[in-house]
Amino acid sequence: MFIASAIERIGDHATNLAELVIYVVKGGDVRHLSREQLEREALSPPAA
């Protein structure tokens, strides 16, 4: 059970880091977007 909890926590940290990178590069908050909207946001060119 401890290992599963640790792996879940690693996944949560990776998600937070990815959201922060998108925010820094794109300037947009992606925390509450659907998967489709998130993919479009991640693949779009950076804002000017």
UniProtKB/TrEMBL annotation:
The cross-references to InterPro entries, in alphabetical order and at most eight, read: PhoU-like_sf, PhoU_dom
Official protein name in the record? PhoU domain-containing protein
Q: Which Pfam families match?
A: PhoU (PF01895)
The UniProt record lists the PhoU domain at 1-21
Q: Which domain of life is it from?
A: Bacteria
